[in-house]
């Protein structure tokens, strides 16, 4: 007979039969999901085994429960109300992993100098993911991060959403440069919102034209083109000649895939007399000059054949750079970052690459699309004063010069360009400064992402030949008007 | 060839193909995780094994990987336990007590499992921001529990309905209250079902992505799926070796659960979805 | 006497249901209602909140991005669901066959289902990688293509990649569902068919399939609803690209949320909700859920 186990509780006055039945049923059930069978047939043994199993299971479950609860309790993850406020200065930055390593170095230096500890929040490399994770934290009014980097294209939305604390109180103060240290045009155009300075440039970019000095010389072309027409002629001539040895040679590579870069390239093709006008709440895209530019872009691929057919499907920054670096192109439109890569050992175009401002339809009317990353201070952060000191540090002449020399970043400060060391390491800096001073930002409006998405789609469709340039721009204009009606 | 032999051959080939289909990507993941370079299948590549990626993933503090794992296990564990604790009495009430409106209740609960998470997440985000719970366990555990309740309820109800009524009737006749009957009769007998329910709930919560993506912002509460999705690594180009090492480590908990409780999981899934 | 007892039971019963109701109300129904309400407002991070009625929905009508994501979601569902059903049925038949390896096979088949979608997304991201990926190694190895295929760089390639990854991930679930249905078919029906000299194929079409139909319908609707709300895989594998061509409806709504536009994003997710709701109604009717509890 089975002994009544006094350890386990049982219903008050329950009969032995009932308990036994429960045990057998339960055991059968457990057998069904155990990974191995016990093969017991003697019921009394079954009941005994089952009782022991049940106890162990209960113990295991209780242990698990306690462990999990302990885990939950020891994590610094209680609701904000229960969490004691711990002030930390957090700096969120992404980018290439080698850059992140350098950031750690810089931050250590900052801590050594000021005694303020900074926690580096590593963001993904992908720009879009950086924006998403940053937006989520800011939308939720999180205390972290305090200081973060923004692509110049997002600045308007961040500023208009009230996420950026004004930096005016700190400008010119202790350890903080004054406004006049930076390029005034940039500060005015993108860093100022409703009269307040909300960000400072960490580095700035403008599109430039790379060209093969050896090929220009070989075919007797005096210098880089000043107009698009000249570019086309030069490209046709050289392409014809070079194709004999290199069948995959193209005259001009640029970014035409359906992404943000396409908008930048388009603005540069349109030049100073074209582009997107935001006037009095209206956004104007469909202009004769823009149509001319888009037509030219399309013809480069389909009519003159001096740009490869995958321009509108695959060509982004890296694709164009690789193409040029392999020696397969005469001209390349890209950002300044490509320079040092073109001059790196193993590059087929080392020593024979030149950089020039981008041409235009009329001489002297060219522009560069303003790119770059700016640093801002969160309005919801818990370490404003410390964050401001960090921003002052990052935008100081000393650090900006380091970033220029180490990462090849083009400063937003004027004095960096006068530095002899920098001029030596980055010889094309003079052209670059010109480009930056003439650079035009993309529309500085909070709804720029929606604008860009529409333009990307329509421009790419025209490049693919799916619609005519006129149709594409007209359709873009209509769509933009619809979207804007939501934001009035 | 006899029909039996033909079927046998067909079956073996089919089973082999099926296993290859299911296991190949997993094997690939482990192989790349353990290889020095990711180009293991390119012509002429040599495979050199290393544990370096695993060590780097676990050892680099700024990647926060172990914290993501702990968060995932804790959040899912809490959700699973809470879900079962809430679903068991409800399943008991639905199966044993003739409650008017129990059909509409079940209908409502079932409907919940059909909702697209994206239709909830924005308001949940605002709710959690307002409460200050973003990036804490609370922000995930409560929605997860609600999310796995339908499945838990259905599985448990299905188990409870299979237990012979006279078992708990006998207990009641002996003077037990309803809650006691639940605890002393239903739970022990349905223990395997409860366990599989908890495991399924754990797996669903552990693998959930959208809520974790929007309701967590950092190492405090971020879970594995988001950690892996945003994983970028430390040096050079996309570090596939490290990503795969992180992925391998990330799936260890669920793989173990599946291997050990395979029968229970299958039983639970079918009970929860198929009504005979 | 008996009435008191019943009343007490009733109250206890509702008390048992109360916590579940409270949790679902607070964290499921309230958010859905809130989202619905949000969709009727212009709610953007850089503008004050304002009631605009059906304004968001009107904008959606002329929004090419919305229609593109709707088309993609529809096409994705149309292609992947039948594929997964067919494959799942094949798997289920294999899994039902009694052998000693059955446990091992089942565990193996469950693995893709158990692995988080985000993780499997990254595995497939590597598989489709232009330089290192397994897919290109296979395709160039057996000579299907001369050079490496840029899978994730074209919309067609990305679409196929997603379908394949989704099929890998969810076929096990379908297989398990169908397995339950298969096990429910009484043995003697097969015996009888054998007696009638029916070959294995005939047995399949005359016995298995008809009896499997209710389960197939259930699996079909389940998978359809799941396909409509796909997010994880799309986010990790293609990010919605290239050029937005593989953006599912969920992903489209999400993009607006992180862009600060809660109103419009909510409207998109309400449309998805209605679509899923439509199919869930069909599912509930098809599964005749009431019967089991009786």
General description of the model:
The complex is a heterotrimer of chains A (488), B (276) and C (294). With 488 residues, chain A is an alpha/beta fold. Chain A has 3 domains: 16-74; 89-206 and 371-438, D-Maltodextrin-Binding Protein, domain 2 (3-Layer(aba) Sandwich), CATH 3.40.190; 208-367 and 447-486, 3-Layer(aba) Sandwich (D-Maltodextrin-Binding Protein, domain 2), CATH 3.40.190. Chain A is built from 18 helices and 13 strands. In chain A, helix 3 (97-114) links the parallel strand 1 (89-93) and strand 2 (118-122). The longest helix of chain A has 32 residues, at 43-74. The N and C termini of chain A lie far apart (85 Å). Mean pLDDT of chain A is 84; it is low at 1-15, 33-41 and 78-84. Chain B contains 13 helices and no strands. Chain B has helices at 3-33, 52-59, 65-96, 102-112, 118-131, 137-162, 165-173, 178-189, 191-207, 210-215, 224-229, 240-260, 262-273. In chain B, helix 7 (165-173) runs antiparallel to helix 8. Chain B is globular. The model of chain B has no long low-confidence stretch (mean pLDDT 85). A two-stranded antiparallel ribbon of chain C has the order 1-2. With 294 residues, chain C is mainly alpha-helical. Chain C has 13 helices and 2 strands; from the N terminus they run αββαααααααααααα. The radius of gyration of chain C is 24 Å and the shape is flat. The longest helix of chain C has 38 residues, at 2-39. In chain C, helix 3 runs antiparallel to helix 9. Chain C has one domain (68-293): MetI-like fold (Orthogonal Bundle), CATH 1.10.3720. At the B-C interface, helix 1, helix 3, helix 4, helix 5 and helix 6 of B face helix 1, helix 3, helix 4, helix 5 and helix 7 of C.
Summary tags:
heterotrimer, B: 276 residues, mainly alpha, MetI-like fold, 74% helix, globular, C: 294 residues, two-stranded antiparallel ribbon
CATH homologous superfamily heading of chain C: MetI-like
Number of helices of chain C: 13
Annotated CATH topology of the largest domain in chain A: D-Maltodextrin-Binding Protein, domain 2
Helix content of chain C: over 70%
Number of contiguous helices of chain A:
18
Question: Multimeric state of these chains?
Answer: heterotrimer
What do we call the CATH homologous superfamily of the largest domain in chain A? Answer: Periplasmic binding protein-like II
Number of domains of chain C: 1
CATH architecture of the largest domain in chain A: 3-Layer(aba) Sandwich
> What integer is the average pLDDT of chain C?
87
What fraction of the residues of chain A are assigned to beta strands by DSSP? 5-15%
- Summarize the amount of helix of chain A as a percent range: 40-55%
- SSE ordering of chain C: HEEHHHHHHHHHHHH
pLDDT under 50 segments of chain C (min length 5)?
289-294
Alpha-carbon distance between the two ends of chain A: 85 Å
Widest beta sheet: strand line-up of chain C = 1-2
